[in-house]
Amino acid sequence: MRDKKQQEAEEPMPEEECPQENPCPETEGAPAEEQAEPAPEDELAKWHELALRTAAEYDNYRKRTVKDREEFAKYANRSLLEELLPVVDNFEMGMKMAEGDQGSMIYIGMQMVQKQLADFLEGQGVEPIPTEPGQMFDHNIHEAIQSEPSDQPEGTILRIIRRGYNLRGRLLRPANVVTAAPAQQDA
Q1: Picking from 71-75, 79-83, 130-134, 164-168, which range would have the lowest pLDDT averaged per residue?
Q2: In the chain, at which end, N or C, are there fewer CB atoms within 10 A of the end residue's CB?
């Protein structure tokens, strides 16, 4: 077993405890440039690089924040517009039912309201998704709620149940459609 004094004598002393006339064993023989402080030019370059990097990060953060704010403002009315679409659907159904008497003042008044609704939606960036019977089903903009046997190719749209809408290029609501399924053959 070693003495505590022998063990302490073998362990290197921290730099601040090393006597000046007797250099510490760790730094003994080390090149002089490693022991010296960095040159002021190197220190200045390091801080300059850090300042440039921090300024670039801040600029990117600012740009990202502005973009996020614009994106939020652009789509802020989304939920309100989604709630308004069933009202538009019901209004369009009412217009189809009233088409029999197009000369009546009620029908003419309903047409004016329908035009105002369409203009309002357009002003908010809402546009109907162009969907026609005979068009091929696209899962990105259509929602198939039913399929029926048909002589049409499989996946062809047979009927539109509910119109779909985009809000400034993004899907607001998919169009509900009935698609063609392969015709059943008798066995």
Answers
A1: 71-75
A2: C
